[in-house]
Specification:
The structure holds three protein chains of three kinds. Chain A has 19 helices and two strands. By secondary structure, chain A is mostly helical. Chain A has a domain of 207 residues. In chain A, a hairpin with a 4-residue loop joins strand 1 and strand 2. Chain A is globular and about 70 Å long. Chain C is mainly α. Helices cover 69% and strands 0% of the residues of chain C. The chains are: A mainly alpha, B mainly alpha, C mainly alpha. Chains A and B meet through helix 6, helix 8, helix 9, helix 11 and helix 15 of A and strand 1, helix 5, helix 27 and helix 28 of B.
């Protein structure tokens, strides 16, 4: 064994991210900075972070057509992981743009923030590539621990700390199950490599229980019902850029990793796990949508909405076909744009009192159109897209997912999903109605200051949500080619 | 081949809007305006090139489809992003980009000040051009679409642009309300469009495999009687959509209020282009309409009655832009009338001439508004012709063209429609002719009230100033069009009888699109009689206005007195807004209140049942979310147990 | 296959049985004469004077965490040292990377002042 046999190329994007993370971290303790310069330094660090993300994205795009399996088969670098990387890097870049101005209002620990964000990104990217249980577990923990800290990053705020603690304790609980599941699978097959597990599994109690426990861990990260309880509290308590990032990145990485496990490690019959996932998907979208109906806080509403969205995306896994995977990847891109965009708008509606819970309530959005028509229009576009209204990205995402479900014989699930979309339209539209049809209060009449970085993030997200809808055909097809080339 | 580059026509406005969206507020007024104008100018050149390319093709092949990219491909059904370039759409893109360009140029100067006559800040100035370019992009998408789904995309897109632009002075409550009203009323129409498309999908989706115009119209040839019967329903829904977009009865109420937007917007969107989308869509769907004669009749009557009603309202309006708004509704009524009687070419011809003179009128009105610092009430004007000679000349040309003054553009196109009506139905012809009288009267009334006589408000008069140069020459270009555009559509019969070197150019151009449909033809003497009578009617209307407002003849005053019982109805616009409030809005509100206050009984149980169960479930689930960590952990653990049981025993 | 685990099961039963016996036997056999002194919770013979739930200075946690982190890292060295002969240069570089990342963390913690009891 030697260094050159490891094919470092296949992990180059991840390595760039880790290196950037370390560089950003070290700046926290190098040199003295006056109080005045801190914000400027924060911006410089954000730029460094963005550059790192861009380089990684560039490397990923360059590798797009080169599948590679290496590090003794512990990671697999292929179309699936490349597209996942792009989703994660996109989400992270948008989160950095959001944090640009937001962060400086409650902390000076910029290095730590960006460093942890990058570590979480690295964890997610590794998670999507791992084809071996220990790699999988370690990357899962890297991303989780980073996110626990990021969730509680606003230390002046009780809700943030509480969210962080809840997330941490439950997350540790869930990690325990993953380790347990991994141990059972190892006990059953004597290996932690997916391929060996698939080949040697006994199919008995140990195998099934192992998979079930592994699934628990993923379901927790995806925030599938009934493992979702932490989500509303954590999403609401966390600083909004973090919420935006983790609502997309974690789900994406966990979904892709779960897909890999299901396709390459699970030896249980398709019907067994597909039905389990179908029921999870059904519960997830229904509970998420129904609970969102009565929310008065936009941030919490979006938290429930992202639970429901995870339910839709699980449909792609249930189908388990090329079409399903393709649809899920497409939806992930669409979701990244529209969900982060929605959180970005919500972050601008928050009150300015940083010791309070940062909450964009419906009342803050009242009559937004007559105050800031562009912001209101952007938020409306995200809401329409999340609700699945043509010709936006969300509509096509759902269309492809439902089509994949019907194609794979899951007609009932597609029907349930359609009914759920109708339910969800109610609360998404409610936000739009509040913004466009109601008169602003005296208290909400002021114009909100909107930093340029947030404008950039929102514009990118709007363009993404629009273009992915208008160019749905070609982008879906290109995903398809890559996915087909991959494996099936 | 020029058609391979057809996508450029969409790209230019898209680039223009992106540039201004990102950099507009940084680069200053000049650059923002130049970029926006350049985008439309390049689009216009492209439109000209496409039209020339089209004219080079032999007549029976003059329809080109350009595939941009496949859009939706699902289970044997496909919708493409594809452009259809044929005579009809080429006329539309020329009008949209040509008139659009002139209005953009005008706006560059006009929008330098805001509604309160303060210098406009860069941010909003750039935003205006972003919206305008967005509108051009969406309108081009609408008219170039080769299928109903893409048309619908453009349809909603222009609605969005219109909504944003009506509410451009969004801090004014009246503007925000007008935007809201336009949005809601259009929603009714758009809903009709969506339903029509779905219905067509069920009727033709299977065999045709797509909703492109070609495929749908081709499927008509083999359609079963049941499908043909269903077409009446489909076309009625399309008609509903068209009445929303083109402000016809019953959905016309939004257009007068839409005048809250800046004047160039009124000119471009709410006069020359967007509101004609309904006419375009119906003309495009003519193979469907031909199979649904009931709908055709309804279209004709809606058009005729709208024309009459709006013209009569315009007579008593005192707000210059509102007069023009009602006249737009009225002229669109003519176009509907034309479509309804099968005179498609005449309709499109009128659409095209109307674009010139109505844009001219709105822009001239904007110029008056500029001169008077935002004042639009003609009761406060008077005598402006001395102060604003250029604006006066332009407005007069537009008004005469609108009035159907013989040999100006409006005269030819309106006559073509009236001819079509004459062939089909005498009552409709009579309505059309009477409306022409009213049209001539109210347009000249506006001219005389605003520009002749003595100033009624000395202060306003003293401060009036003539339009700046940047606004002048686009107006002259439009005025040129208003005078001469009609020459493209000289009746073919003239060519034959008088030996003109050219015949009806526009009819020849549009022939391939409306192949197989016979344009109305009557004897030469009849046609001449129609021409003379409508010219005569226009002159009577003009004279009436002159007698009433310039000479102030006694008999006109007594005529007015005799007609005064009608006045309340006209001044209150036939109470349509009030009727809508009484019949639709208030009952809905009452219903909402009824449900909101928790009415008991069966209705509540049944209607609200589903919603209540769902929301109650929402409350229940929210209650599960206690915030207690131990409870969360328990839920997680229960999930684990269930999954384990499932996996081990499944 | 499952039979392989039989010794484990036997061990488990014996261990559980032993614990059970150790708990049950005294309660069955031992005499019971409770008095006030006997019922006091005992803290090394001292009478408890405050709640056991109290706040500790956060530095304790800091030090404890750092200790655990670096302690575990050290444990990695043992298996590494055993196979270093086989891994050769590769192993050395791998460990250098590992240590390098650790040192960055160490440097950060140090400069942040986590080692100062303040």
């Amino acid at each position: 064994m030697n260094l050159s046999s490891l094919n470092w190329n296949s992990l180059l994007p991840e390595l760039v991210i880790v290196a950037t993370s370390l560089i950003v971290l070290i700046t926290a303790v190098v040199g003295k900075v006056s109080r005045v310069d801190r914000i400027a330094r924060g911006h410089a660090l954000a730029v460094v972070t963005l550059i790192g993300l861009l380089i990684a994205a560039g490397l990923t795009i360059m590798q797009l057509s080169q599948p590679a399996s290496d590090f003794m088969g512990m990671v697999q670098s292929d179309a699936l992981s490349h597209y996942l990387n792009l989703v994660i890097l996109l989400a992270a870049a948008l989160a950095v743009l959001l944090a640009w101005d937001y962060l400086g209002r409650f902390t000076y620990s910029f290095s730590e923030f960006y460093s942890l964000l990058l570590l979480a990104v690295a964890g997610m990217m590794f998670l999507g590539k791992s084809t071996e249980l220990i790699t999988l577990f370690v990357s899962l923990e890297i991303l989780s621990i980073s996110l626990y800290i990021l969730t509680g990053f606003n230390r002046h705020q009780l809700a943030s700390a509480e969210a962080s603690l809840k997330y941490f304790l439950l997350g540790a609980f869930a990690s325990g199950f993953i380790v347990y599941g991994a141990a059972l699978l190892y006990g059953d097959t004597g290996s932690t490599w997916f391929s060996d597990i698939a080949a040697n599994a006994s199919g008995g109690f140990l195998t099934l229980a192992g998979f079930a426990l592994l699934l628990v861990g993923f379901a927790f990260k995806i925030a599938a019902v009934p493992f979702h309880m932490w989500t509303p509290d954590a999403y609401q308590g966390a600083p909004t850029p973090v919420t935006a990032f983790m609502s997309v990145g974690t789900k994406a990485a966990a979904l892709v990793a779960l897909f890999r496990v299901l396709q390459s490690a699970v030896s249980a019959p398709y019907e067994t796990w597909a039905w389990a996932l179908a029921i999870l998907s059904l519960l997830t979208m229904t509970v998420g949508n129904v609970a969102a109906l009565r929310q008065t806080s936009i941030k919490r509403l979006l938290a429930y909405s992202s639970i429901a969205q995870a339910g839709y995306m699980l449909i792609g896994l249930v189908a388990g076909t090329v079409l399903g995977l393709q649809a899920m990847l497409f939806y992930l891109f669409a979701y990244a744009f529209m969900n982060i965009g929605a959180f970005a708008c919500a972050s601008l509606l928050e009150s300015d009192d940083w010791s309070e819970l940062q909450d964009a309530s419906m009342a803050n959005a009242r009559g937004l159109f007559s105050r800031q028509p562009l912001l209101a229009t952007a938020l409306a576009i995200f809401m329409f897209s999340l609700a699945g209204i043509p010709p936006l990205a969300g509509f096509f995402g759902k269309l492809y997912l439902f089509d994949a479900a019907i194609d794979a014989g899951w007609l009932w699930l597609a029907l349930v999903a359609v009914i759920n979309s109708v339910i969800s339209a109610y609360y998404y539209m409610r936000v739009v109605v509040v913004m466009f049809m109601e008169a602003p209060d005296e208290s909400t009449r002021v114009r909100l200051p909107i930093p340029d970085s947030a404008i950039l993030a929102i514009v990118i997200a709007v363009l993404g949500a629009l273009l992915l809808g208008i160019l749905a055909g070609p982008s879906f097809a290109s995903l398809g080619q890559a996915v087909v080339a991959w494996r099936f | 081949m020029i058609f391979d580059y057809a996508w450029l026509i969409l790209l230019f406005p898209a680039l223009g809007l992106l540039f201004n969206a990102f950099f507009g507020r940084r680069v200053g007024h000049k650059v923002a305006a130049i970029v926006a104008n350049l985008a439309v100018a390049l689009s216009f050149l492209m439109a000209v090139a496409l039209a020339m390319g089209l004219s080079a093709l032999p007549g029976d092949e003059s329809s080109v489809e350009v595939l941009l990219w496949p859009w939706i491909h699902i289970a044997g059904f496909q919708v493409d992003m594809a452009l259809l370039i044929d005579p009809l759409s080429s006329v539309m893109i020329l009008v949209v980009t040509g008139i659009g360009l002139l209005i953009h140029i005008y706006s560059a100067t006009y929008m330098k000040v805001d509604d309160e006559h303060q210098p406009m800040d860069e941010r909003r100035y750039a935003r205006f051009f972003v919206y305008m370019n967005l509108f051009i992009l969406m309108m081009l998408t609408l008219v170039l679409a080769n299928n109903y789904v893409m048309l619908y995309l453009g349809w909603e897109g222009v609605g969005l642009a219109s909504y944003l632009l009506i509410g451009f002075w969004f801090y004014k409550p009246s503007a925000a309300d007008a935007a809201k009203k336009a949005f809601l009323v259009n929603r009714v129409g758009d809903f009709g469009m969506a339903l029509a498309i779905m219905w067509m999908f069920f009727l033709f989706g299977k065999e045709a495999g797509s909703l492109s115009f070609d495929a749908v119209f081709a499927a008509l040839e083999t359609a079963s009687p049941a499908v043909v019967a269903a077409l009446t329903g489909v076309t009625l829904l399309l008609l509903l959509a068209a009445t929303g977009k083109s402000a016809q009865i019953p959905l016309f109420v939004w257009l007068p209020d839409a005048m809250e937007g800046p004047s160039p917007v009124s000119a471009l969107i709410h006069a020359a282009t967007m509101v004609t989308a309904g006419v375009y869509m119906l003309a495009r769907s003519h193979p469907l309409l031909e199979l649904a004669p009931a709908t055709m009749t309804l279209i004709a009557w809606i058009g005729g009655l709208t024309a009459l009603m709006a013209a009569s309202i315009a007579i008593v309006q005192t707000d210059l832009k509102r007069i023009l708004a009602y006249s737009t509704i009225s002229q669109l009524g003519y176009m509907f009338l034309g479509v309804g009687v099968g005179a498609y070419v005449a309709s499109v011809f009128h659409l095209y001439t109307h674009a010139f003179f109505k844009a001219l009128l709105f822009l001239a009105a904007g110029s008056v508004m500029h001169a008077l610092h935002g004042e639009l009430n003609i009761d406060l004007m008077g005598g402006l012709r001395k102060k604003l000679p250029v604006t006066y000349a332009q407005f007069l040309i537009g008004a005469l063209a609108l009035a159907g003054f013989p040999l100006l553009s409006g005269y030819w196109s309106k006559d073509a429609i009236l001819l079509g009506a004459f062939v089909t139905s005498y009552p409709l012809y009579a309505i059309g002719l009477f409306t022409a009288l009213l049209t001539a009267f109210y347009s000249l009334r506006a001219v005389y009230r605003a520009f002749h006589g003595q100033p009624r408000d000395e202060h306003l008069y003293d401060h009036a100033h003539e339009q700046p140069r940047g606004m002048t020459w686009p107006l002259w270009a439009l005025a040129f069009g208003a005078v001469f555009a009609g020459l493209l559509g000289l009746p073919a019969i003239f060519g034959k009888e008088f030996g003109f070197p050219v015949g009806n150019l526009i009819e020849g151009w549009l022939k391939p699109t409306f192949e197989g449909l016979s344009e109305p033809h009557v004897a030469f003497s009849t046609e001449m009689a129609l021409f003379i009578s409508s010219g005569f009617v226009a002159l009577i209307g003009i004279y009436l206005a002159y007698a009433r407002y310039v000479k102030q003849s006694g008999w006109t005053l007594s005529l007015q007195k005799a007609l005064s019982p009608l006045q309340p109805a006209l001044e209150n616009k036939y109470w349509v807004d009030e009727i809508y409030f009484a019949v639709i809005v208030n009952p809905l509100r009452a219903l909402a209140r009824f449900f909101a206050t928790g009415a008991e009984g069966v209705i509540d149980g049944v209607v609200n049942g589903v919603g209540a169960v769902t929301t109650a479930a929402g409350v229940g689930i929210a209650r599960l979310q206690t915030g207690l960590l131990s409870w969360y952990a328990l839920s997680l653990f229960l999930g684990v147990v269930l999954l384990l049981i499932y996996f081990v025993f499944a | 296959m499952v039979l392989d685990y039989l010794p484990l099961l036997i061990l488990f039963i014996i261990a559980a049985g032993f614990a059970a016996i150790a708990i049950i036997l005294p309660t069955v056999l031992g005499p019971r004469n409770p008095n006030k002194m006997k019922q006091e919770p005992i803290e090394s013979g001292m009478i408890p004077f405050m709640q056991a739930w109290r706040r500790f200075p956060v530095q304790y946690y800091m030090v404890a965490m750092l200790f655990i982190i670096f302690d575990i890292e050290v444990i990695f060295f043992y298996p590494w040292a055993v196979v270093l002969g086989k891994l050769k240069l590769f192993g050395l570089i791998e460990m250098a990377i590992f240590l390098g990342i650790l040192l960055i963390g160490y440097f950060y913690v140090w400069r942040k002042g986590a080692f100062e009891w303040q």
